[in-house]
Design a protein that fits this description.
This protein is α+β, with helices and mostly antiparallel strands. It has helices spanning about 25, 40-45, 65-75, 100-110, 125-140, 170-175, 245-250, 260-285, 305-315, 325-330, 335-345; strands spanning about 5-10, 20, 50, 85-90, 115-120, 145-150, 195-200, 210-220, 225-230, 230-235, 240, 260, 295, 355-365, 370-375. Pfam families: ACP_syn_III_C (PF08541), ketoacyl-synt (PF00109).
Length: about 375
């Protein structure tokens, strides 16, 4: 088995950053009114800027495949061109269509040459799953390199004309901010963008990162769906898919809007996340003292202190000086978030040879978690 290195990382964030005062102008006003819940959600998620593939006139500037294609292109130069890519592995929550697959559409835009493609479905873990597919391909010698991506274009899902009515119980939101998550938290949190990495079996470049191991865990055997789109959650916890509803009900029921079961989220997301992290660390003999940089993908800073306490409670505590996040600067970019954190950390110039980086990506859809442990070379 070969070693695998992340030799290049790129990102593509569309247009200019959008601050909190202008985001509702971009997405539109629901029922022509300013959201009462927006300030409460923003106060808790603490995001200051995000990116939308929408221009000032409300026109779409990029679809998901185009965002991803731009990130892949930014990986390439005269020494490694798009024609050198052997495997294209792409993960996203928000593909542009049901068929063809997301990776196929990105390949079509690259117009390079015949190669293998893989599309990882799901939510935030889809980017890590795309990375793991590429990692295993290079590690086994199936391919000499792999380009792996995570991307999202969710802004069009959050536009006022297709989004459900806002949360109306302002007093409840003030007393328990997590209630706002059920309807509006995604609207004031999600961001567009794409990240890409180049995997190869030999290190090269200024700060290559060796992938020591990757792990994934699903708790779908224990828990019902928490975040979902394309269906309706029934009283028995099952999801009735859009394809089983009459077409005239798709819009009326907002079947394609993202929804969140906040009760399940608050009760399980951190406990299961830290439990699976502990399993991964114990499996590979890693202790907190062997982690120099901890990169957790969290959807909101609302969870930051609680995650810190849960890590301490389960005896895998990470001191604050190890934490590296950029949520406030780029927003929650779902499957791309972990790529964007890696890119910013590598670009910062802080990394030193031999340092260890731990990536943690949760997915609330039905409670999946993905991990990677990296060494700076």
């Amino acid at each position: 088995m070969k070693d695998v290195y992340i030799n290049r990382i790129s990102k593509f964030l569309p247009n200019e950053p959008v601050d909190n005062d202008h985001m509702e102008e971009k997405l539109g006003f629901i029922n022509g009114k300013t959201s009462k819940a927006r300030r409460l959600v923003l106060r808790n998620n603490k995001i200051k800027n995000r990116y939308y593939a929408i221009d000032d006139q409300g026109n779409i500037t990029h679809n998901n495949a185009q965002l991803t294609k731009e990130a892949v292109t930014l990986l390439c130069d005269a020494d490694f061109t798009v024609n050198d890519i052997e495997l294209l592995s792409c993960g996203t929550t928000s593909p542009d269509q049901l068929l063809p697959s997301h990776a196929s559409m990105v390949h079509g835009l690259l117009k390079n040459h015949t190669l293998e493609v893989n599309s990882a479905a799901g939510a935030c873990c889809s980017g890590m799953n795309a990375l793991k597919y590429g990692y295993l391909s290079v590690r086994s010698g199936q391919t000499d390199n792999a380009v792996c991506t995570g991307s999202e274009r969710t802004s069009s899902w959050m536009m006022a004309d297709i989004f459900e009515n806002e949360v109306k119980h302002l007093k409840e939101l003030e007393e328990n901010p997590i209630l706002a998550f059920h309807k509006e938290f995604l609207r004031w949190m999600l961001s567009d963008g794409a990240g890409a990495v180049l995997l190869e079996s030999s290190p090269r470049g200024e700060s290559p990162l060796k992938i020591e191991w990757m792990e994934g865990y699903s708790y779908a055997n224990e828990l019902d769906a928490c975040m979902y789109a394309g269906g309706e959650k029934l009283d028995n916890g099952q999801i009735k898919p859009w394809s089983e509803y009459p077409a005239e009900e798709w819009g009326h029921r907002s079947l394609f809007a993202m929804k969140q079961d906040v009760r399940l989220l608050s009760e399980n997301i951190l406990i299961k996340g830290v439990n699976s992290l502990k399993q991964a660390m114990e499996k590979h003999g890693v202790i907190p003292g062997q982690v120099d940089y901890y990169l957790p993908h969290i959807s909101s800073y609302y969870f930051k202190e609680e995650l810190f306490r849960e890590l301490e409670r389960q005896e895998v505590g990470m001191s604050w000086d190890k934490w590296f996040m950029n949520l406030e600067r780029v927003g929650n970019v779902g499957a791309a978030s972990v790529f964007l954190m890696m890119e910013e950390l590598v670009s910062s110039g802080k990394l030193k040879k031999g340092e260890k980086i731990l990536l943690q990506v949760p997915e609330s859809a039905r409670f999946s978690y993905a991990y990677a442990y990296l060494t700076v070379c």
